[in-house]
Backbone:
């Protein structure tokens, strides 16, 4: 397949590379109109004027020929039963290349917006929220429909398909509720929550399992269902308002990390402190590597607190190749409107990077703390999101925390909810 454009820009090169990866094709880009005319391949003309009667003509909306970042006039309309924008009068009906680029690069997060209480990009600013498609992997849906357009117009093209995948992931940011926290932390917590004293003492004296300890149970669950999975460990040496895990210097924490690394993929959960202490990111990565004896190349920011483009640049500088932070810490859904991984495009530098982004669709903490859902309600939402992903042959990534899956009465029903979700999704 040959794709023509009057002027090749980094944005066009990026989006064609993405389409090649997701449609499993090898489309070539050219700005040579004579080469394009003489080609006998299937052809897409990404310009304003028709060149060949047999081509697929897509008019550029302009975004991919720009090099500045400015607020875009985006108006949604119905296209083949789904939302679309950047409407055009051509063979397709909208500039799918510009629309995918806008959502994938998180273009709107570079423009002026109101942050949430944690200083993060707030979901209510997003087009997906305003237009009610946050619960759909819209890019993936477009790609399936675009694939149908291509195979109908160019009957010689054979496009492959991917398979649905489920990837459960876990954030270990409070490894235990009572154990291994030290004398003074337990005293302070007992004074603040006196009703916990009987259970706390029972756990500390070894008569009862810590309520946040779900590790053996999870291992059995993974073995039972043959699940590939990832654990993200918070290893900040100093606690802060939001970073409250056990010190990585504690013997028990060292052992938990090492034991987990032997039976699963482990990754870094950069502390909230890394947002202001830039040197801490590499320090925490090296700490986790030293403890686990593993090379750490993946991450997910604690509290989903990251900012574009700086946070991603810092990950690259620290040697991180894969990040799993793309989602909201307030609502569930598809922040980048896709369930598939993609290479991050640095919009300010106008360049493709080596950092691969893996979007998550569901986090139980959103359901519990932000949406105040019961385990039953959360299960239904998670199942619906998983079904959306299944329909586009995508990857459903979930986030759970060990303290939700233990025996703490505060999270009663969530362990059962998770078991049911795995049965449904698998």
Residues:
């Amino acid at each position: 397949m040959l794709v023509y454009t009057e002027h090749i820009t980094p944005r066009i090169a990026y989006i064609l590379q993405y389409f090649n990866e997701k449609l499993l094709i090898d489309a070539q880009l050219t700005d040579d109109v004579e080469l394009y005319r003489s080609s006998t391949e299937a052809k897409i003309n990404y310009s304003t004027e028709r060149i060949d009667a047999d081509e697929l003509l897509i008019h550029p909306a302009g975004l991919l020929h720009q090099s500045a970042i400015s607020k875009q006039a985006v108006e949604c309309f119905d296209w083949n039963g789904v939302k679309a924008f950047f409407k055009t009068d051509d063979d397709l009906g909208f500039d799918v290349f510009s629309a995918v680029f806008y959502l994938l690069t998180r273009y709107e997060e570079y423009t002026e917006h109101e942050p949430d209480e944690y200083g993060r990009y707030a979901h209510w600013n997003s087009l997906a929220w305003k237009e009610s498609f946050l619960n759909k992997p819209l890019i993936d849906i477009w790609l399936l429909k675009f694939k149908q357009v291509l195979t109908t117009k160019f009957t010689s093209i054979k496009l492959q398909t991917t398979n649905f995948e489920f990837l459960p992931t876990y954030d270990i940011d409070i490894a235990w509720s009572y154990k291994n926290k030290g004398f003074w932390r337990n005293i302070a917590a007992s004074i603040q929550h006196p009703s916990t004293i009987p259970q706390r003492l029972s756990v500390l004296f070894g008569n009862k399992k810590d309520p946040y300890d779900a590790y053996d149970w999870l291992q059995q669950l993974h073995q039972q269902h043959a699940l590939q999975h990832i654990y993200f460990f918070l290893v900040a040496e100093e606690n802060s308002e939001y970073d409250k895990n056990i010190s990585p210097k504690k013997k028990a924490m060292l052992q938990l990390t090492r034991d987990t690394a032997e039976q699963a993929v482990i990754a870094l959960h950069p502390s909230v402190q890394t947002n202001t202490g830039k040197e801490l990111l590499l320090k925490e990565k090296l700490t986790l590597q030293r403890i686990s004896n593993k090379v750490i190349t993946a991450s997910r920011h604690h509290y989903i607190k990251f900012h574009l483009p700086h946070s991603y640049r810092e990950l690259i500088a620290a040697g991180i190749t894969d990040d799993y932070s793309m989602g909201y810490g307030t609502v569930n859904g598809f922040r980048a409107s896709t369930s598939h991984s993609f290479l991050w495009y640095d919009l300010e530098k106008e360049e493709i990077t080596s950092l691969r982004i893996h979007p998550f669709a569901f986090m139980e903490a959103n359901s519990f703390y932000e949406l105040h859902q019961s385990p039953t309600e959360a299960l239904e939402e998670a199942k619906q999101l998983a079904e959306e992903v299944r329909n586009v042959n995508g990857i459903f990534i979930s986030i759970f925390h060990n303290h939700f899956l233990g025996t703490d009465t505060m999270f009663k029903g969530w362990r059962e909810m998770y078991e049911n979700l795995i049965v449904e999704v698998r």
Q: What stands out?
A: Residues 294 and 300 are 17 Å apart (CA to CA). The domain at 165-176+212-425 is CATH 3.20.20.370 (TIM Barrel). The first helix runs from residue 10 to 23. The chain has a mean pLDDT of 95.
